[in-house]
## 1
Amino acid sequence: MAVDRERVGALVRELLVAIGEDPDRPGLRQTPQRVADAFAEFYAGVGEDATAPLAHTIAVSSGPAPHTMPSGAVMLRDIRFRSMCEHHLLPFAGRAHIAYLPGAQVVGLGALPKVVGILAARPQVQERLGEQIADAIDQALDCRGVLVVLDAVHECVTMRGGTQTVASTVTIAARGALAEPAARAELVGLLGRESG
């Protein structure tokens, strides 16, 4: 479902009036349209199928390395994401780290950031976002376990209330064999290591 830009623009204009501003002054004349355009981008994931990027899998037994069955996890670290907190409609942004224990199928690594992007592009809370990413991967791939760690800074914490400017929130979602803390300890340990 596409964002109704015309309606968003009209509502932003009304919001400007409601806070005591003049939406016709030069600095604000284009604001309703700009906000509508931004919302179309911020909420592009509403109604989208987050498992669609995972539809094309590669059979491990006949893929590019047919004699190399993964014995451990496949991990992609530092996937940048941004989302909008559904409580205050303020942004939160950070990094997602995803690991999964492959079964007979693997997925191209570029598919994982697409899943994150679709699910982040809707009104969210970080805890649910991590769970939804884990669910999408768990449901779409024949994997033995999934781990999703999100580390994000929330502007509802940094800009209002207690204004904790450097505080970040870390959440963990896990499925299958990685649901037990001991089973995922090695992977969580890898997150703190410098890449490259």
Note: The beta strands are 57-59, 74-85, 91-102, 105-107, 123-124, 143-154, 169-176.
## 2
Amino acid sequence: MRAGIKQLLPNPNVSADVIFVNADKLMDLVGTQSNNEFFLKLTEAPITISSQYVFVTLVNLSDYFNFITNENGEIIKHIFESNVRDYQGHTSVNKDIQESLENPSTEDFWWLNNGVTILASKASLTTGKEIGITDPEIVNGLQTSTEIYKYFCTAIERLNQEKRNILVRVIVPDSEESRDKIILATNSQTNIPKASLRATDSIHRQIEMYLRNRNLYYDRRKNYYKNQGKKVT
């Protein structure tokens, strides 16, 4: 097979190799992002336990906005894929977050909000006030993140005026089991049906992908396709 491939290449000096992959590996390759190295600016040096690759820190709201958006100012959706729910709209909790953002008080934002949890395959301090994060997954804090995104998008000049901070936890789990435990624990503090907590299982991702290619939308994460404008029918 290697010899046959080399015959098909225009340059006979180019080496060729063959690697066999199964269906699970193909699914992993489909879901892999080509550039997934992010940098998060910090307000202060983080609390960290280097042996466990855990960082707890404060991040200015404008820097967090920059972290979750691309060069076109659009929210980067794939870093929220491991959330068990999509944005829930005008719930009482989201209205409270919006109220806190729109009406600054003597309390910093992070005093009034539980913050966000980011899981990663790798994380390290690049400077005293910046963390390099590989394969970030924001597993808790999508509602807060979306409200922050909407807050700055309505008046982009706010980015240069913002003084408030958000609490951020960056964790590199040492196993898939640990990762699943963190997702479960950080999403169990609010009223979420137990079935929704399985939304990140690979089988449900595969069902969603299979059906989406056939113009059917599997509601793996509650409200995801509703927020994309897909009709119930």
Note: Strands lie at 37-41, 47-49, 54-60, 116-119, 122-127, 130-134, 137-140, 165-171.
## 3
Amino acid sequence: MIDIVKKSDCSGCYSCVNICPKECINIEVDDEGFGYPVINNEECKKCNLCEKACPVINDPKAEKIETIAYACRNKNEDIRKRSSSGGVFTLLCEEVIKKGGIVFGAAFDENYEVKHIGAETIGECEKLRGSKYVQSKIGNTYKQAKDFLNNGRLVLFSGTQCQIKGLKLFLNKSYDNLITSEIICHGVPSPKIFKLYKENLKNKYNSNIKDIRFRDKALGWNKFSYVTEFENNKIYSKTLHEDIYMKGFLHDLYLRPSCYECKAKNFTSNSDISLADYWGIEKKHSEFDDDKGISLVLVNTEKGKEIFEKISCGMEVIKSDIGYAISNNPCIVRPVKYNKKREKFFKEVEGKNLEHSIMKYTKTTLGKRVKDKIQSSLGKLRER
């Protein structure tokens, strides 16, 4: 029976909720805005299926090949422009939908909360495109995916590393008609903080939200912007370094506790494909970089290799060095470091202005600025 003693022992993947035969596990939200399983002990029959499906405790059976890294960009410039990086996810969706399959991924609902949904058309898949820097609620989509798989439908399931790991443990068997695509994750921010942030913007612009884009490329891929469009046609747009929500996210200030000790890193999810931004592409493959977005695609299984070959006609591809890719995106193999200011931030944010609290706890000290300057200078010297 699942018993969460430390908050860091739960990734919020919903695997235990989906697998419980008595449906006696519910998710309750804590003061930080993260959901955790609560068991109705009177209904629980102590089958321990919830423990066996937990990605913090267990690893799925490995079906790996030697991982191969590729730098990729969709040949369709419009799709790449509307994608977070190189537009590879859309190609995966198109291949699956073409074969009568269904795609599961994270989407905004009518209140701009992030939830996993199933998409059966290319139009519906557009909701799944693009980064959402807040934890997605899996809900019962693991169960839905299993029903489709058992009925012979092709299923593509996209999610963070822990969500894919949770799915694999929930299913507890291999399906030839399942393709998994994990998103390399920096960590998932608190839905509560994101809600406060949205309310602040709505009040400031005196309007409801019409659209949110975390990774707008109007100023380029490397300097992407957070954009909110409002029903009164006003637009808020700031770069990743200017926007207050992104600032707190990149300082790891309000991530889920389990993110600092993530047990789903380093390919333990056994996902067929891993997708990420190919940061550092300009130094490794300068001729390939145009600041419009390049995907890093890691092919991890034979099935991943097969689907990658099928969609390769729709993109430009360069085989790359996995070691270099990991050095520029270490979240592939290890979690971010815990921010020691996190606890104070959550205690303070309740009674104070969100923007003030984030600014206060992300402020860089003079000593840190000097240290960063020295390290930057040393790095440039090493490159010469």
Note: The first strand starts at residue 25 and ends at 29.
## 4
Amino acid sequence: MTANISPEERDRMLQWLNRNLRDLQKYAHQYVAYNGDGIIAVNEDLDRVLEEADTSGVVYSIYLVPGFTGSIVILPIYFRTVSRHEWQPNYSVSLRNQNREIDLTMLVDSGADFSVISFKIGQNLGFALADREEILVGQTLGGAVKYVLRRIDFSIDGYQFNAPVAWLQQETADIMLLGREDVFDRFNIEFRQAEEKIIFTRREKE
């Protein structure tokens, strides 16, 4: 179910995720509902995962397992590294569109201009293409991706704000990113890789 996740539970969930990133690779391109105790549901069909997770009656977050095995990320190219530290800068985010809300785990990426959500997540939040709406094409190091821009309500550590997202139009693009636009203007973000931790601190209005 979607609920306010306490900071303690959020940290426990992210710790579980970081400890199990390698094992989760067997679920590449699938959606995983999980919490600090482990996996609740997993499937390529997001609706089935949400239904099963909601039925469990426990808090959870959704993680889209990317189809790569490296641990250094340059969107959307992934490299293997000689380092044994496999932590990734994931963070818990809640997204709301009208009366639909979902708790997600997104990769914090300072190299992404906009936050990015997958095609299925956008559909679940109620997004649909307008008649004759122009589909945009973004050029990345890994090639071109098709997307449309939407605005959505974010909640990070209980702080709510509205920001744009790039809604991908390819079902096979398993990318979920928390990008710079609006987000990085509202928070000072500190990456502590040695501690496997990210700290979001709200900026005072200037």
Note: The chain has a mean pLDDT of 87.
